[in-house]
Amino acid sequence: MSSSSQSQEASSIGEARRRLGAVEATLNSFVVGCEDLIRALLLAAIAKEHVVVICPTGTAKASTVVTALAKLLDARLYYCLPARSMRYDELFGPVDPSTLRRNWSEIMSSDLVFLDHVSDVGPAIASVLSSLLLNRTVYDPLSGQAVKARLWTAIGASSKAPEDPELRTLYDHFAIKAFIDRLPDEHFTETFRVGLLEPSVKPLASMNDVRVLHDHAMALLEGGTIEGLGRIRELCYARALPLVGALRVRGAVVSDDLIIERLLKLCAAYLSLYGITIDNVANSPYDLVLYLARTEKELRDIKEVVDDVLGELAELAKKLEKAKKLLLADNVQGAEEAFREVLGYDVKRFERAPWLKSRAEAMLSSAKRYLKLIEEKVKRPSQLRS
User: Fold this and answer.
1) Residue-number span of the structural domain to which 373 is assigned
2) What is the pLDDT of residues 63-105, one digit of tens each?
3) Which member of 73, 155, 308, 357 has the lowest number of beta carbons within 10 Å of its beta carbon?
4) Residues 8-20: what's their mean pLDDT?
C-alpha cells in the first residue's frame, strides 16, 4: 500500500472513530447510568457480534437505547416481539398464494434486529434464529434454500438467562451479555423528551463508519503491532491471561473459545473505537471480561476477581457507581457530594502503574461529566431521566 493510500485509510479510520465517539457521547448525555450498555452495543457492532441485554421485565430501557442508536447511525432497525407460539411466517414473512413466493419481512433487510423477550421463543423459532445469528442466513422451508440476510448485529433482551437447553444455544450466539438494573419508573418517563428521537434529529454517523472500524479491528487482530512492544494480539492475550487464571482459581468457567476468540475480538474492537495505546491494551480485558458472564452469578464472580486485581481502584469505581445511583434516585445533593468525593481522589499514587492511572482518570472524567449534568438539571431536567 502506498503512503498516500495509508494516509487516506488512517484519515478514514480517524473520522469513523470521531463520529462513533460522538454517537456514544450523545447517548450518554441523554441516558444517565447506561454507559456499560451503550458501550456494549457499540463494541458489538464494531466486532460484528450480537449482544443480549439482561434486564428486569418492564424496564424498556434497552429498546429505547437501541432505537436511538439506530437513528444516530442511520441504520435500518427491525423490532420483533417473539412469542412461544410464533410461527415461521409471522416472523419471516408470509407466502404469496398467487406466486407461491415468500414476501420476506424486514428482518431480512435490516442492519440491526432487536429481539425483545428473546427467551420466550419456541424451539422451532429458536433454531431458525440461531442460524440467523450464527450464519446470517435463514433456511426457507418453502424453497428449501438458505437465504442470506442483511443483518449486521442482533440485540436481544431478556429478563433472565434461559434454562432451556435449546434456548441456551440461541443465547450463546450473543457474544456479549450486558446486565442492567431496573430503575424507578418515574426516571424513565422523561427519557428523550428533549427530542433525541424526534424526526428532525440527524444521524451523527453511519453503518459505513461501523464497517470501517470493524475492518480496522480485524486488521489489528491479524497483524497489528505497537512499535517497540509487539503484536497487539499477543499483548492483549498476555494481559488477559492473569485475569483468566484468577477466574479459574475462583471456579468461574472461562473457556478457551471465550478468551481466544471472543475476548480478543472485543479487545480489537475496543482499540479500534478508543485508540491504540498501551493503556487501552492493558485496560480492555478488565473492561470487557464482564460482558462474557452468562449468568448473574458468573457476573458477580467475575466482578469479585476484577476487584481483587484492581485493589484500591475498585473502591473508587464503587464510589462512582454509588454516586450515579444517588442521582438516579433524585438525591441530587447526595450525588453531588459523592461525585466530588470521587474527584478528590489522588491519581498520582498510580504513577508506577500507568494503566491503572488511566482507569482512575477516566473515572474522574465521568464524575466531572455527571457534575456538569447536575448543574444543567434546573435548566433541562428531562435530560437526567432514564
Assistant:
1) 312-380
2) 888 999 999 999 999 999 888 889 999 999 999 999 989 999 9
3) 308
4) 87
Q: Which amino acid is at 365?
A: S
Q: Which residues contact residue 134 at a Cβ distance below 8 angstroms, ignoring those fewer than 6 apart? A: 173
Is the whole model's pTM more than 0.90, yes or no? no
- Between strands 77-80 and 51-54, the pairing is unpaired
Same domain, 68 and 110: yes
CB 207 within 8 A of CB 73: yes
Cα–Cα distance measured from residue 365 to residue 163, given in angstroms and rounded to the nearest whole number: 40
165 with 279, same domain: the answer is: no
Domain containing residue 129: CATH number: 3.40.50.300
Instruction: Give 258-288 as a DSSP string.
Output: IIIIIIHHHHHHHHHHH---HHHHHHHHHHH
Domain assignment present for residue 60? The answer is yes
User: Domain count of the chain?
Assistant: 3
Residue 278 shares a structural domain with residue 351: no
Residue 300: helix, strand or coil by DSSP?
helix
Residue 369 lies in a domain: yes
